[in-house]
Design brief:
The complex is a heterotrimer of chains A (about 525), B (about 270) and C (about 325).
Chain A (H helix, E strand, L loop, with lengths): L3 E10 L2 E11 L4 E5 L6 H9 L6 E9 L2 E2 L5 H7 L4 E4 L13 H11 L5 H14 L18 H13 L5 E5 L7 H18 L2 E6 L2 H7 L2 E6 L2 E7 H7 L3 H10 L13 E13 L11 E13 L3 E5 L6 H8 L7 E6 L2 E2 L8 H6 E4 L13 H5 L12 H14 L16 H13 L5 E5 L7 H18 L2 E6 L2 H7 L2 E6 L2 E7 H6 L4 H9 L12
Helix pairs in contact in A: 3-4, 3-5, 4-5, 9-15, 13-14, 14-15
Chain B lengths: L5 H20 L34 H36 L4 H14 L3 H12 L3 H28 L2 H8 L4 H37 L11 H8 L8 H28 L1 H7 L1
Helix pairs in contact in B: 1-2, 1-9, 2-3, 2-5, 2-7, 2-9, 3-5, 4-5, 5-7, 7-8, 7-9, 8-9
Chain C lengths: L1 H28 L4 H6 L5 H11 L5 H13 L13 H36 L4 H13 L4 H15 L15 H35 L2 H9 L3 H39 L4 H10 L3 H29 L7
Helix pairs in contact in C: 1-12, 5-6, 5-8, 5-10, 6-8, 7-8, 7-10, 8-10, 9-10, 10-12, 11-12
The chains are: A alpha/beta (about 525), B mainly alpha (about 270), C mainly alpha (about 325).
Chain lengths: ~525, ~270, ~325
């Protein structure tokens, strides 16, 4: 007898079908993975089970938990079940907690609301739960506030308050997507240990196949509101009956075809670069402290090469990126691009500007919503003395658009008319239009769905051969970096801790931190990669 | 074609009625407001005098039309001052966030906020004497930190976006970025705030005229009509009711327009409307 | 928290100094010679000279400024030119009408606006919300002095529940004094309450969109509990700033409204001062009003830190 039995769950919002005939069941102590890309409906399924869908949603079907149909009981009764029999944690830990309430109170509240204990006892139990999720008393007393905790720590608090009443099922909707690789593996380990100890069932929703294959007993693959394939993880991944499952798998593991033409001449030289920030004063009389974002970093990027820079958040890679682009003053060292020194500040060399461009992570904030595409992608021409105008400009725009797989007519559209993947193509067109030598890709594919990501990586590989481009590929995602770079640098706390050929570093890491990163990265099962 | 929200239409009708009345008054009013006609004073509303007559026999309807000129003119110029001075200050402050320029402008803002327009008007009038011009300056000065704060706030949230970084990589400098990228994207905020400050300006002008600090006789003004009507309110309430309604309806119209504009101009809502 | 209070205190002092410089400059520098300004065009040179002596205008600007500031700090606001009595006496008698009136109005306005705004937000889109939005939309458009006149018409002249004006004096009794301030306070409070209610509503609605509300619902809190226990405190934070600003408008409004109710407050003092060119009075009263506003803002800032833990530092 299953713990949770879902049959023919259908959801539509304002007459648009969101979920169609979703059916699956989850047993006690089982980890059930739901995997799919954005728009697949996986989050909607979770919200539907919890009764937290937006107003105007129509639900049919049944979801039986301990003889109660979650979809048919009253809201009042559902409130007694939420946080009690069934709990949920969400994707964004930074905003998941009430900023003006202590963490102790927020965990204790679950217990108080369900009548399990009054305030004093509830706080005692809250202390136990926080200990259980790895937040010990010395560092995390009950009266700490959320803004004093990091993302990973806040997620732990969110888990503590969700499991405080020892629910039978915990739903985790992309619980680690917003977290660093090492934090991610810690949180996933925590969830797994909770499942084992409490015999709790876990519904784990994610877009990451590797995460699911490492953790889940059973898995369901979703696409546009339907479950296209389901079964035990082993079965699904070894058989892959549905075309979409195969597509997802190959995209996750995708290695674009590249013909790197490596030359010995250095294109970009970073020599002993130092960048410090003055921190705001802690009190009127203290001397200002400094934050050392980049400490004495040196490396070389050769012409034709794809160089990867990996590191977790706070390691200084964004600062280094901005310094390379000439947007940050250096307190020490030099950055040289094709023999010219890159200097930040008022007088920026337009010669240097022509040689490098950048593509950013967020396809939604990368463009001014009020300008048309043609104007947007020709912005890099701004500083050039021989700026093309009129027909010549139009030609450049058209070329850039067709090179990235878009249409000539797109020049007259606005950015909101494009999807995330298309916007990244526009971003690449913008980077490409002045024929630079170096393109800095700052987490350029991190925000994209896996299948789109594969297409964009292919595009980048094609363009690098066609136009003799070199890439500096910055990412926190090791699996992507592994597949597309020639050499890789590992960065931590402002320093490069390891560097070398990508394959060598990944197969045989030398530095402790590199080993830690690689161990923390979820891997797709090796024996299955043969299929691709 | 975008479907206009009802608030915008309704508010627009209200406000433009008064605006048109004010404009027409330059060419024609039912009666001449400068002529005193003691024999026909305190008349109740009739077909001859649509809103009745006041204690000097003047036709109240005509006085409302002419008074509209004052209210609208003062309020509009005051908004103009607010935007002309406040907008550049706000943009400048935002582009130098964290530096002393930003701090200085914010402190200046806070200082002006400590002086409500009435106080500023008092200061100016004590030295220069009451007049419409001084009322405009007083209200205008108070509008400056309002627009400075709004533009700074809007600009700050745009400065952190990636397309600004892109522009900087292209070599564009702060001033150019402020004009080319920031300004068009905060225009909506300014338009909506502009209608709000416009309506507040009408209320402020009425208050100043009421206490005698604004436009001086013989130029009619709604505020002064209310001041004059005060002692006679028990037997001639229409002297107070009509100017009061005029103020309320004009302000209401502007506020509804502001709401409607916000609905159209908010990009999230705009996409839903198609 | 202490550090926060300290920096705010410094801010307060700087603002007061800056404000005093502005007021001083406008009153004493711009008209050229304050003495001849006060006496008018037809004054004789000897009278002007005598007044200059009396007002202490023969010192340097800097010394005059400092003696003015120092005087205020010790309670000496100078001698009124029109009334020939110390300005401090004039102010003291009247500030106890204007200030309580403004505070009374602030209390009424807040007590009405908070629940109304909250109810509107909790019932978004429903008839009660639409009714509240409609009423407040009208409320913000009403000039407070006009509203005061209408209130007098209905409640004093016709219904005779309240006297039409005047103030008996605090010595006559607390309740009677408060009663005479009630109509004025209501007239002041209702338009401001409309503004505050709308802001409260939108602040609560913004808060309800936040992720932590979803977390609260997932814990098992129902809608009402989520609003009370999580949304409310967060929604208050932006509303607090507005209350600080409201006080400045209420003080200005109180001054105007005194006119309708014949209250012997700071309003009459100031307007007569303007008509009679009594710069001494005007200068001091304006400084006092600005001081009141800046102080209230300071207190509000402190409340901010008390409510929002992110502003405190360890």
């Amino acid at each position: 007898m299953s713990l949770l039995d879902i049959k023919n769950l259908n959801v539509s919002i304002h007459n648009t079908k969101i979920l169609e005939n979703i059916s699956f069941s989850v047993n006690e102590g089982e980890i059930f993975g739901i995997v799919g890309e954005s728009g697949s409906g996986k989050s909607m399924t979770a919200l539907g089970l919890m009764g937290l869908l937006p107003d105007g949603a129509k639900i049919t079907g049944s979801a039986i938990l301990s003889e109660k149909d979650l979809l048919k009981i009253s809201e009042e009764e559902m409130c007694t079940l939420r946080g009690n029999a069934i709990g949920m944690i969400f994707q964004e830990p930074m905003t998941a907690l009430n900023p003006v309430q202590t963490i102790g109170n927020q965990v204790a509240e679950t217990l108080i609301i369900h009548g399990r204990a009054k305030r004093t006892k509830a706080l005692k139990i809250a202390r136990e739960k926080l200990n259980r999720v790895g937040l010990t008393e010395e560092q995390f007393p009950l009266d700490k506030y959320p803004h004093e905790l990091s993302g990973g720590q806040r997620q732990r608090v969110a888990i503590a308050l969700a499991i405080a009443m020892r629910p039978k099922i915990l739903i985790a909707d992309e619980p680690t997507t917003a977290l660093d690789v090492t934090t991610q593996s810690q949180i996933l380990r925590l969830l797994k240990s909770l499942v084992e100890e409490e015999k709790m069932a876990l519904i784990l929703i994610t877009h990451d196949l590797a995460v699911v294959s490492g953790l889940a007993d059973n898995v369901a693959v979703m696409q546009t509101g339907k479950i296209v394939e389901a079964g035990t993880t082993n079965d699904v991944f070894s058989q892959m009956k549905h075309a979409y499952t195969r597509q997802l798998f190959s995209a996750s593991n995708h290695i674009p075809v590249r013909n790197p033409k490596l030359e010995e001449t250095p294109l970009l030289e970073i020599k002993n670069v130092v960048r410090n920030y003055k921190l705001p004063r802690e009190s009127i009389f203290a001397r200002p402290k400094f934050f050392h974002a980049v400490r004495d970093i040196s490396f070389i990027l050769r012409k034709g090469e794809n160089l990867g820079l990996v590191g977790e958040s706070g390691c200084g890679k964004s600062t280094l990126t901005r310094a390379i682009l000439g947007l940050e003053e250096l307190q020490g060292g030099e950055i040289i691009l094709e023999g010219d020194i890159v200097k930040a500040g008022k007088k920026l060399n337009s010669k240097i500007r022509r040689k490098m461009q950048v593509v950013f992570q967020d396809p939604f904030s990368s463009f001014n919503p009020r300008h048309k595409i043609g104007r947007l992608i020709s912005e890099p021409f701004y500083l050039m003395e021989d700026r093309p105008t009129g027909a010549k400009l139009k030609n450049e725009i058209n070329d850039a658009l067709t090179n990235v797989g878009l249409k000539v007519e797109d020049a007259d559209k606005y950015i909101h008319e494009f999807s995330g993947g298309q916007r990244q193509r526009v971003a690449i067109a913008r980077a490409l239009i002045i024929k630079p030598s170096l393109i800095v890709l700052d987490e350029a594919v991190s925000a994209l769905d896996v299948s789109i990501r594969a297409q964009v990586l292919d595009l980048l590989a094609e363009l690098s051969s066609k136009f003799n481009l070199s890439y500096l590929f910055i990412s926190h995602d090791l699996s992507v970096v592994r597949n597309i770079t020639d050499r890789v640098l590992v960065m931590k706390s402002g320093k490069i801790v390891e560097s070398g050929d990508t394959q060598k570093v990944f197969d045989n890491p030398q530095h402790e931190y590199t080993k830690e990163l690689i161990a923390a990265t979820p891997q797709l099962p090796k024996h299955l990669s043969r299929k691709v | 074609m975008i479907k206009l929200p009802r608030t915008l239409i309704f508010g627009g009708i209200l406000f433009f009625t008064f605006l048109i009345g004010a404009l027409i008054s330059f060419l024609w009013t039912p009666s001449d407001v400068e002529i005193l006609n003691i024999t026909s004073r305190f008349k109740l509303p009739s077909t001859v005098n649509w809103f009745g007559t006041d204690h000097f026999g003047r036709d109240i309807f005509s006085m409302i039309m002419v008074g509209a000129r004052t209210s609208i003119a003062v309020a509009v110029v005051a908004v103009g001052i607010g935007i002309l001075v406040g907008l550049p200050l706000g943009l400048w402050a935002a582009s130098h966030h964290g530096h002393w320029v930003d701090d200085l402008i914010m402190r200046g803002n806070d200082l002006v906020f400590a002086f409500p327009s009435l106080i500023i008007a008092i200061l100016i009038t004590a030295v220069f004497g009451p007049s419409a011009f001084n009322a405009i300056i007083a209200i205008g000065i108070f509008n400056v930190p309002v627009f400075a704060r709004i533009s700074r706030g809007g600009a700050l949230s745009i400065w952190t976006l990636d397309y600004i970084l892109s522009a900087r990589v292209a070599g564009k400098r702060t001033f150019r970025i402020s004009v080319e990228h920031i300004l068009p994207n905060i225009a909506n905020l300014l338009i909506v705030q502009g209608t709000i400050q416009f309506s507040l300006g009408i209320l402020a002008e009425a208050a100043l005229s009421y206490v005698g600090l604004g436009v001086q006789p013989p130029t009619p003004s709604w505020g002064r009509m209310l001041a004059d009507s005060q002692t006679m309110i028990s037997f001639a309430p229409h002297l107070a009711l009509f100017p009061g309604f005029a103020i309320i309806l004009t302000v209401l119209g502007l506020n509804l327009m502001g709401d409607g504009l916000r609905d159209i101009l908010d990009p999230r809502i705009r996409r839903a409307r198609g | 928290m202490l550090h926060f209070a300290f920096t705010r205190l410094i801010s307060l002092s700087l603002s007061l100094i800056a404000a005093s410089v502005v007021i001083f400059s406008v009153i004493e520098i711009i008209p050229g010679d304050p003495a001849s300004f006060m006496l008018g065009i037809n004054a004789q040179p000897d009278t002007i000279a005598a007044l200059r002596e009396q007002l202490g205008l023969n010192g340097s600007l800097l010394s005059r400024y400092f003696s003015w500031v120092f005087g205020m700090l010790t309670g000496d606001f100078g001698i009124s030119y029109t009334y020939r009595v110390p300005v401090s006496e004039l102010i003291l008698a009247r500030v106890w009408i204007s200030l309580p009136l403004a505070i009374y109005a602030l209390v009424i306005s807040t007590l009405i606006a908070f629940p109304v705004g909250l109810i509107a937000a909790a019932n978004r889109g429903k008839p009660i919300d639409l009714a509240i939005m409609g009423t407040t939309q009208l409320g913000v458009a009403i000039p407070n002095f006009w509203f005061a006149m209408i209130l007098v018409l209905i409640f004093s002249i016709n219904l005779r529940w309240f006297s039409a004006g005047g103030f008996p004096g605090w010595d006559e009794g607390l309740l009677i004094s408060i009663k005479s301030l009630t109509l004025p306070a209501i007239a002041l409070a209702l338009p401001q309450a409309s503004i505050l209610a709308r802001i409260m509503r939108s602040s609560v609605l913004d808060t309800l969109d936040q992720d932590y509300i979803r977390t609260a619902r997932a814990k098992g809190l129902n809608r009402r509990q989520a609003i009370w226990r999580h949304a409310l405190k967060n929604a208050m934070i932006p509303v607090l700033t507005i209350i600080g600003m409201q006080f400045s408008f209420l003080m200005a409004g109180a001054i105007i409204i005194e006119n309708v109710f014949f209250l012997p407050g700071l309003g009459r003092l100031i307007f007569q001062g303007i008509t009679q060119r009594d710069l001494v009075v005007v200068e001091s009263v304006v400084m006092l009003l600005v001081f009141a506003v800046i102080t209230v803002t300071f207190i509000v800032d402190l409340t901010y830190a008390a409510v929002d833990p992110r502003l405190r530092r360890k």
